[in-house]
Amino acid sequence: MREGRRFAAGLGAVVICLAGLPGCATMRNNAPSPDLQPCSDAFIATRDGWQLGMRHIRPAVPDPNKLPVVLCHGLGLNATFWTITDNHLPAQLAARGYEVFLFDFRGSGNSSKVGRVGQINARLRQTPFLEVGEGRWTVDDIVHYDVPAVLDYVKQETGSDRVNWVGHSLGGMLMFPYLEQSPDAGRVASFVGMGSTITIANTPARDMLRANRGLRVLARALSPGRLGRPLMYVRFPGLDRIDQFYYTSENVDKQTVARFYGYTLEDTGRSALKQLDPYLEFGHFVSADRKTDYAVLLSSVTTPTLMIAGEADSMSDIPSTEQTYNALGSPDKLLMRFGKRDGQVADYGHCDLVWSRYAPQEIFPPLIDWLDRHQPIASPQELPSPQRR
After folding, report:
1. DSSP 8-state secondary structure symbol assigned to residue 252
2. If you ran DSSP here, which 8-state letter would residue 38 be given?
3. Is 290 left (phi over 0), alpha (psi -120 to 50) or beta?
4. Whole-structure pTM value
5. To pair with 297 at 20 to 30 A between CA atoms, which of 35, 131, 228, 271?
6. Which option is the CATH number for 2-378: 3.40.50.1820, 3.40.30.10, 3.40.50.300, 3.90.1150.10?
7. Nearest Cα to 247, choosing from 258, 237, 236?
8. Which of 135, 127, 115 is nearest to 22 (CA)?
């Protein structure tokens, strides 16, 4: 009870703090580096009336034998998720000759509805209040509309009809429904899921379920993402209970945590959270209308797949990752685990897989090596390695 009162008092202080700060959108758009700003190299239209921000990171020496890489962030975050650390994954991919594309899916960054609603939301984005229509979009909408729009844009920019898709958390989860159901699934030549599972081994996941439902209540009027922005400057009691879902404090630099709250945290979308409810309660990721169980369709996925799991990940734990991995129908699949028992310096949590100070040396190189072995033209020594776990 006392912890709850301290948390509420801290939240009230955050709201007061927000009132005295410059507009949220202005602050992010004026960040000192493109790595901290919303994607704005281009804005692409989806078939259902959204504009998505895109960023294109070009290699100094492009490798014509390598397909472009699309990086997809998770729910409640934006694409700066990939670039708030030094020596980040997009930079390492570009250094190895890949064209890299990051995008802010609907409800994040500067992505917005077109027309009058978008104009209204541009103003609301400067305030702690929720944007119009923020609670209506689902994960299925991202799968059916955002993913095809991104693939079309990459083809327009590079001429390549196929890509390598690397997703973290929901950014990887949503690829399973796409590969299972889309007639264009072949446009994803290889898939890397980092902390991405669509089954849960031990259900219900009570802590995450409570957090999920609490966020939905908070997001009825206020913007959780913008409420969190002052946390880049101040901390209050009880915040560590939220942080533990995202990262392991001993693995992630304080500067990264500050940037996370200031530049990366976004609203989650109430309908998207509602779609995750049965996943957290019963262990299977299903469609928003609950008519399609994506978990039972995993055997239909034949795309070469790499799954990356952290030993300390509480959101996509090892048993759940193994369960999803074993159900995949792909004859070319590999599971990489990262933690002390696997020979690494630290046990990796959920966002540690990308944010940890050790990730540039321990996770990114083997990930890129796997991608290299799965490009259309690979030298004999780069042919796919035997499957191992």
Report:
1. S
2. P
3. left
4. 0.91
5. 271
6. 3.40.50.1820
7. 258
8. 127
